[in-house]
Design brief:
Layout lengths: L17 H12 L14 H22 L4
């Protein structure tokens, strides 16, 4: 028996202006079986998460480049 899928999430590579993303959402809504699309505006929690990941990766990279520090 096959599983049933009720939603698909699309994650953008980078933040896009809301007026530019309208064409993307309109295209997705044209796909048969798509009921609605919903956009999510970037906020401080997104910025915080990115900065934490950037900091963590930077520390790991420094340990690779300068292992004895």
């Amino acid at each position: 028996m096959t599983d049933r899928v009720h939603a698909i999430t699309v994650v953008l590579e980078e933040d896009i202006r809301s007026d530019d993303v309208e064409a993307i959402t309109n295209s997705i809504e044209m796909i048969r079986g798509v009921l609605t699309t919903e956009t999510h505006v970037t906020d401080i929690s997104d910025y915080t998460a990115r900065e934490r990941v950037r900091h963590e990766l930077g520390r790991k990279l420094l340990k690779v480049v300068y292992p004895k520090l």
